[in-house]
Amino acid sequence: MYLILQLLVIISAFISLEHGPITVYAKPYTSAVASVNKHTDGAKPLYSVQMLTTYINTMEYLPGNFLIDIDAPIIWHDCIVQENMYHGSCPPNTLCTSPVSCEESECSEVRTFYSYKNPSCPPEIDGYSSSRWGSCTCGVNVLNPMTSSCDQPLLNYDEFTLRTSDGRNVFSNGNYGTFPKAACAPSSSVASFPANVSGVMAFSSSLYAFPASSYPPLKRTFALCFPSKTSAPGVLFLGAGPYYLLPQSNVDVRSYLSYTPLLTRPDSFDTHPDSFGYFIRVNSILIKKRSISVPANATTKLSTMDPYTTLRTDIYNSVVRRFSMVTKRLRPAKPVAPFGLCFSTSTNGLRVPDIDFNLPDGKKWTISTANSIKQITSEVACLAFVDGGATSEPAIVIGTFQFEDNFLVFDLVNSTFGFSSSLLRKKTSCSNFNFTLTYNA
């Protein structure tokens, strides 16, 4: 049934391009859009995307919040699998979905290539539904990002829906429905998640991650713009653009971007061969005209689960040494874990030299004060880079504090990564997308 629904959605998308008024899309949309929220009620800041899910008993779209994980191979969330669903069959306030049978090819494929591999994980087992049909279910192992433990949810046919957009307006009369294979976990698996967050939305290069469920007219590209505050959401786009942020409503954010190749699963990164995350090459780190070399075999990973950029000890020591030298005018403060270099400051904050990640082809990703200095208290601020240890691999992990108010585009068609550096220098931010609904006439 879900394959038929997905086919109908794809057909309607093509029809809308050619015939406009005969479908719900009066004119072509260029993206699907969702809000991104920052959560600070746990041990580390996390970011979630809000999507619509189907509540089976009423067939209404209900919003759900899911952690954004660009490394996870598969989507999983709080729900139950249920065969032969009908109106009233799903328990109250519960999301019900259809199970993937253990006899289907997707079950063996996910278990072989996308299931989390760790000696601590239990063997993957087949279960049996409680219905009179007695069909077997497909358990797969996933990594719980909050507990770092294995969970074994059940593979299912799922549905997630976003609003359509032209990059500037959100259309009230257009939805973009996707039908990925995901996995249902019990409520206990998300008990340690931030409040009102019910699962993990995978945005990796995996064939079972959310971007792989996109279809025309949208390309397999997504953009992330993480907010720096909990009070106003950022934005996520599915599709290659254009993208607009207020107050420059006529400036396509793509004009701010530089691009570098995306590297997926580099051969040198053999300690985690099952990773479906994203990697880039950093040639050196520049601080006030002094370049710090990064070894040619060092790997740089992008992470939405690590709160701060982590550097291998040899790189970290060089960065801290140089940064200390160019900030000698600032009064030092006692380091506050996990940071190793802190300063005495005031409620007005402080300004420090930029840190540039020098990338191939002369491109550079500039880390300005807003993304390099973390205000701990009104009197203490710290360099938001962390020592990962002498043998840490990847050697560099760029974390979410450095993502905030930066516009990031993951183009999986052309394997490129676009980055804006700080939007604050462009007099805008990730919280400046206009989510006001507009009728697409």
Structural notes for this entry:
With 441 residues, the chain is mainly beta. The chain is 10% helix and 34% strand. The chain has a 17-stranded mixed sheet that branches. A 5-stranded mixed sheet has the order 19-22-31-23-30. A hairpin with a 4-residue loop joins strand 12 and strand 13.
Overview features:
single chain, five-stranded mixed beta sheet, 441 residues, 4 helices, mainly beta, globular, 34 strands, 34% strand, disordered N terminus
Report the sheet with the most strands, covering strand number, pairing sense and barrel closure.
17 strands, mixed
Coarse shape: globular
| Amino- and carboxy-terminal Cα gap | 31 Å
Task: Note poorly predicted spans.
Answer: 1-26, 268-273
Could you say which structural class the secondary elements and strand pairing correspond to? Answer: mainly beta
Question: Which strand-content bin applies to the residues?
Answer: 25-35%
Mean pLDDT score: 87
SS field, number of helical segments: 4
Can you count the beta strands?
34
Radius of gyration: 23 Å
